[in-house]
Design goal:
242 residues; 7 helices; binds zinc ion
C-alpha cells in the first residue's frame, strides 16, 4: 500500500517534470510585428509576414556601411552633395532596422561619419563571430551609362566561399524584386572586407551614382528603403535554407 502510494506520488512528480519539459521546449514565437513610425516601408508591412521564431540562438549579422570620415567613396556628378559614405550609412541603418524587426541580432561597423580602416572592419567582424557579414556600397564608373546592382563574394575553395555565393545570389534576387533595378549579376570580388572575414560575406554595389537616372532613384529615401528591405528579405531567405 505504501509502495503503491509512493508510486503514485512518483508518477505525479514525473508528470509535472514532463509537462515542464514540454513547455520549455515549445518554440517561442516572436511578438507581433511592431511598426516603426519613421520607416516608410513599415506602412506596407510587406516584410512583417515571416517573423522569425527562435527556439535557439538568434543569428547574428554584421552590417558594414562602406567608407566614412575622410574616405568619402563615390560622388554623384548629377546630384549636389550626394556622397557614397552618407548613402551607405543611411541604407545600412534601414537594413539594421529590418533585420532587428525580423528577430536577428545585428552589429553595425559604424553608426556615424567615422573613418575605419578595412582590415579593422574585418577584424571587428571576426571578433564578434557573426553568422553573416554584409557590406553596403554604391558604385561609380567613367561610363555614365553603367547602371544596375551587383553583389560580390570572395572566391576560394572552401565552404565559406560557397555560402557567400549562395548568399550573394539570394540577396541579389530579392533586391532586384524590391527595386526593379537592372541585374549586373553576382561576381567574385577581392575586397578586404569579404576576403579577410571568416564567415559567409557579401558586398553589394547597390547602384551607380554616376548614372543620372539611377542617382536620382538612390537619392530617394523610399528607394533606399526598398533596397534595404530586399537585402533583409534575401538574408532571411538564406538563413531559412542554410
Ligand atoms: Zn564603395
Amino acid at each position: 500500500m505504501i509502495a503503491w502510494r509512493q508510486g503514485k506520488r512518483v508518477n505525479r512528480i514525473l508528470f509535472f517534470i514532463t509537462a515542464l519539459f514540454i513547455a520549455s521546449c515549445s518554440p517561442v514565437k516572436n511578438q507581433a510585428p511592431y511598426p516603426v513610425a519613421e520607416n516608410p516601408a513599415a506602412v506596407t508591412g510587406e516584410i512583417a509576414s515571416g517573423y522569425f521564431s527562435r527556439p535557439h540562438r538568434r543569428p547574428k549579422i554584421v552590417i558594414d556601411a562602406g567608407h566614412g570620415g575622410k574616405d568619402q567613396g563615390a560622388k554623384s556628378p548629377h546630384v549636389k552633395d550626394m556622397i557614397e559614405k552618407d548613402l551607405t550609412l543611411s541604407t545600412a541603418k534601414l537594413l539594421d532596422r529590418y533585420l532587428t524587426q525580423l528577430g536577428y541580432e545585428t552589429i553595425m561597423i559604424r553608426t556615424g561619419d567615422v573613418f575605419i580602416p578595412l582590415d579593422a572592419r574585418a577584424e571587428f567582424a571576426n571578433a564578434n563571430t557573426p553568422d553573416l557579414f554584409v557590406s553596403v556600397h554604391y558604385n561609380s564608373a567613367p561610363n555614365k551609362s553603367a547602371h544596375g546592382i551587383e553583389v560580390y563574394y570572395y572566391k576560394e575553395e572552401n565552404e565559406r566561399s560557397e555560402s557567400g555565393k549562395a548568399l550573394a545570389k539570394v540577396v541579389l534576387d530579392n533586391v532586384l524584386s524590391s527595386t526593379h533595378a537592372k541585374s549586373r549579376g553576382i561576381k567574385h570580388g577581392n575586397f578586404a572586407v569579404i576576403r579577410e572575414t571568416r564567415m559567409p560575406a557579401i558586398l553589394i554595389e547597390a547602384g551607380f551614382l554616376t548614372n543620372r537616372e539611377e542617382s536620382k532613384l538612390i537619392e530617394d529615401p523610399y528607394y533606399r528603403n526598398r533596397l534595404a528591405r530586399g537585402l533583409a528579405q534575401g538574408i532571411r531567405e538564406y538563413l531559412k535554407n542554410h
